[in-house]
Every structure is written in structure tokens, then in C-alpha cells.
Amino acid sequence: MIGPEAGRRLSPLAKWWWWSLDYVYAGWRQAALLWDGRRAPRRWLRGDPALPEVVLLPGIYEHWSFVRPMGDALNRAGHRVLAVHGMGANRADIAETSARLARALGRRRTPDAGRVIVGHSKGGLIGKHLLVHDLAAAGRSGAGRSGAGRSGAGRADAPGDRGPLGIIGVVGIATPFGGSTRAWLLQQDPSIRALRPDDPVIAALRSAASVNAHIASIHPVWDPHVPNGSVLAGAHNVEVPVAGHFLVMRAPATVDAVRDAIGRLAASAAPSRSG
């Protein structure tokens, strides 16, 4: 556990140490695909129908096994949990993956309690993209009209609105909602270049600020992959006392923050469900 002030005052040696631990954990979770298998546990599909269904999205270069600890924790808390398969290492562009996710969710019955997307890093960006377009499809907002084609993202109405996929909100964990300045260093890789702050899709999502009330952004005190931070104006922002872009996913404080955020989103959507 690291306090906020300590996190901001980490020495170069301490940052190197946490960064090393970050990659050790990331490697372990990626290797977990070998023993976890390629499919999420079927028990994840069982849960309390009064609680929102959780859609788990990993980040770039991550498989579903990376988010398994979070899925297990949320399932134990009573949520039905979906892991979306067929994304590979999540290297496709945000808009394309958002469209594929929409098709996958569209083939399932929309739960009465709605859905919350919980995404790590790029997964949170995909979640916001889909949220914008799902609200637009509800016919109650202009979301998606300000941009053209697959990169479009625009405005949305206040919490309580729901689209046909039933998405009531997004919980992003270590998500670069404004893009990551670190992406400039690895821009030879198109999938990472797409996370630059000046990328058109990132810019369109940034302009879709009115949906931010449907979003919770949970972030560590120090994130080497998102040096410009994950704070999102208008969203519910929570800093958890841990360092690391990947290690944040294993912290009990993160699980608690995610559960609280889902509860907040469900409470905001309740008038819509009962109306």
C-alpha cells in the first residue's frame, strides 16, 4: 500500500522497483492463460439478477486471464460476469473492437439490472466508445452524431438513460481516457500509436464529455504507462493506494473501489429501470 503523497514522491530507484514488479505481475497473469484455459468459468454466468451484469475487458496485449482475479472477486460478490472471447490480445482498434463487442452483447438477452463494463487500460476506452453509441441508439441523446464513421463520439444525456444493450456505465481501471503520452515512445506499433493523445478516436472520446457522469475512473497513485494520469472530468475518480499499471488490478482496494463504483452506477440507473 502506498499513500498518495508517497506515490507522488517516489524516487527513480523506487519507480524502477515498482515498474519491475509491475511487469513480473503482468507476465504471471499472461502466463495464467496456460492453466486457466481459454474460456472463463461457467460459474461466472450465475449471480444475483438484481445486480448489474459485469462485462470484463482486458487491456492491450492482454487476454481474458489477465482480468480473472477481478472477475472472480465480482462473481463472489454476486455479479454475473462476462468475459468476451475472440478479441485475441486486444490489438484491434478501439472502434472495431467496440463494434464487435456490441454484436456479441446484442446476441444475449439484455439483463433487467443492466450491464456495467469494467475495463483495464484500453478496455476502459472500448467501454466508453460503446457507451456513447449505446446511448445514441436509445434515441434519447445525440451521442455519436458529432463524429463521422467508426471514430464518432458525441454527447449523451444524464445518468438514467439506457440504450438497447443496457449499458448503465463504465468502470475504467488505469485507463488513459485522455490518451497516453507514453505511446509516443512506441508509436511504431499501430495498436499502441492509437493510444496517443492526438489520435482521432481518442480525441473524439475526449470530446464526448457528457457521458462522463456514467463513468468511474479508478487509478493507482503512480502509473508508468499513463504518466499524464487517468483522472476524467465529470466522472467518479478514485485513486487507490498502489503503484503500477498492472499491479493495480490485484489490489483489494481496487476491488472495493470497483464494487462501490458499480453500486453507484446501478443507483443512478434505477429511476430509468423503474420508470
From TrEMBL:
SUPFAM superfamilies documented for this protein? alpha/beta-Hydrolases
Q: Where does the source fall among the domains of life?
A: Bacteria
Q: Kindly provide the name given to this protein in its UniProt entry.
A: Alpha/beta hydrolase
**Native species:** Agromyces rhizosphaerae
